[in-house]
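Support case: user asked for a sample of complex input and structure output to validate their parser. Sending the pair below.
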Amino acid sequence: MSGLPRRITKETQRLMAEPVPGIEAIPDESNARYFHVKVAGPAESPYQGGSFKLELFLPEEYPMSAPKVRFMTKIYHPNIDKLGRICLDILKDKWSPALQIRTVLLSIQALLSAPNPDDPLANDVAELWKENEAKAIETAKEWTRVYATGK
Amino acid sequence: MIVTVWTGYLLFQDPPQFFVDATRAFNSRLVCLAQGILHMGSSCLSKDRSRQQPCRQSQNHHHNRHNRRNHHGQLHPPPRGYHVTTMHQSAQQNLERQLRNVRHPNLFLAGLSSSDNDDDDDDTNTDILVLDTLSIIRRLVDNDPEPPSSMLRLHDIAESESGWLRVVLSMIRVIPMEDGLGPAVITLLIDECPLPTVETIHRLYGALGISQNLSQEAQAHAARHRNIATVLGCLAEKLAGPKSITMLIDDVLQYLLANLNLKFSPQVVLFSLIALEKFSQTSENKITISNSGIRELLLPLEKYASSEDLMLRQVGFCAQWCLDNLFLVEGRPYTHELVSLKDCHAMLNDKDVSEYLKITPTGLEARSDASSFESVRCTFCVDAGIWYYEVRVITDGVMQIGWATKNSKFLNQEGYGIGDDEFSFSYDGCRQLLWYKAKSRPHDHPMWKAGDIVGFLLDLKHQEMLIALNGNFLPPETDLFTSAQSGFFAAASFMSFQQCEFNFGMKPFVYPPQVAFKTFNDYATLAPDDKVILPRHKKMALLRHMSVSENACNLCFDREADVILKPCNHSGVCMDCAMQLEQCHLCRSTISVRAFHQAGQHHS
């Protein structure tokens, strides 16, 4: 690695200067490739009212490979597992270097609005989501209240 | 390579169980980020299982797709049947060795009498497992795909909160002062074990009786207190953020501050200082510590940065680093403003280094206190002739020092450094290994000691690499020349708490080889601005003011966007980036031709 790539500096500047509503991404004090992220639960989703912490890391190969992102706050979602790992195509095989930190975080916010139990990461959650959606949504709301508010 | 790569192994060893058990395991930043493979690898794994495919295949598939670190994919089936008997035998031999060093021998006598008891539910067994891990770590090499069984057992014990407490108290109790790898092993074990809740950490404080007064015991029980400080530092790093704030209660702060006194062993001072530095990674703690009077304690310590007592030298290094980077003192000039670099023409490259390595403003000494594997290259590159440089190891732990080209990557979080790819070769005097392509083989030198001099001779005419410990050369090595013939930099990687000093020819060498050689310092030049190694906050501030040209490549922002992709006709990228793309970055259509723009022609 030779210093901090201009691409990362440029993205960081823009994130600070023009933040995305409902999303906060702050670079770590000692590691400019590591971001402390907060995403607000989208309105009209079971996550509404919650504030979810994530961590985002730009690997050496970024932007030729995707950022690594993980939920730090517990969340009940069929595409997010107990360790906070996210099942999202653009973080894997559908990554493009034209995508950015900002677009990745927007996609994650969108994933909260539209859970996809047919492509599950957390199997038990996905099953309940398919069998009894109302109950699953209730659980997601409860988890949001317990883990994602007031901290 | 360092052993943290096992975290991937631990996660993968038993996939179905993993999703059940791992609720609170591995919720640490490093463990997850460290494993480039984890985020993607495991999720593929879960999907593939639902399609009734073997999970290991998906993992390899993933690795092949990304075309690196394939040897990670070769994970063996779960070794859940521990070799208990074998372990106990080696643990017992180990015990006999360690008994001399440990302060509570009666615990071990009890352990000996019940050594054939498989029940791990007692402190003595935990002590044995910790000591076993400590002795094994030194002998472990990359060819072992599984972590040592003692480490797996400790990991299992630490699954419960009370088990975690037992493991940590055991480490504090038995890891001896004399073992240079002790603090690194504490870091490793805390890394490997599930992280505790804040309640458990408070229980740990209670069990230790932590307070300002506890520091008084540090004189008589230096090892114990060095270990306590190391544990506190590790936890502060792992739990950076809100948890770290609730961890830094006043008793802990006062205890660590009271330890910053050279009436105690320098190791107690050193690791207490490192713990405070790691607590300061969380901004609120930094303010608290900053207002605690720490500056007055650090100022008398920084003069030891050039001490010939190598333990004190480490204390001085860290004190100076804290005063330059964290706890600024009004009226105290930065160290970089004081050093004279007139005669220095080659140094460690502050712009070619992984994130957490600390480099002195002289550019010739470096240290890592992070749990990652930190690397750096020299500023000067050699292409022909015979070159020599020396390194004085200040600590005797794991460092991989040698030569690397620009193509060698610093994957610090994954545990890869110099000698861990085809573009670098390194010498590790602690584990007594030579490293190339992340594979190691033993060499005949004795284990290095603090103060030893390692010499590196690169003969590009005969394509040979010679390495000496205190003037005693090993046979020539040639591996690296199969992948590179020129463009070599002196380079090094550091495990936690390791430090060394480089001589690129500015000073006379201690063991100059008996052949005609050149030194970097005689042939290199550096612009005055390129010699300045700024404290981190000043470096970050400079970065924020960087500007970008209008016509810059949309992907790297470094070069001009002068390429058009065919057949889709999208543009906005430079040739360097275009060459790395298989599909168009905008429309994902497969690229068949990458052409430079004709003047005046613009597609987008």
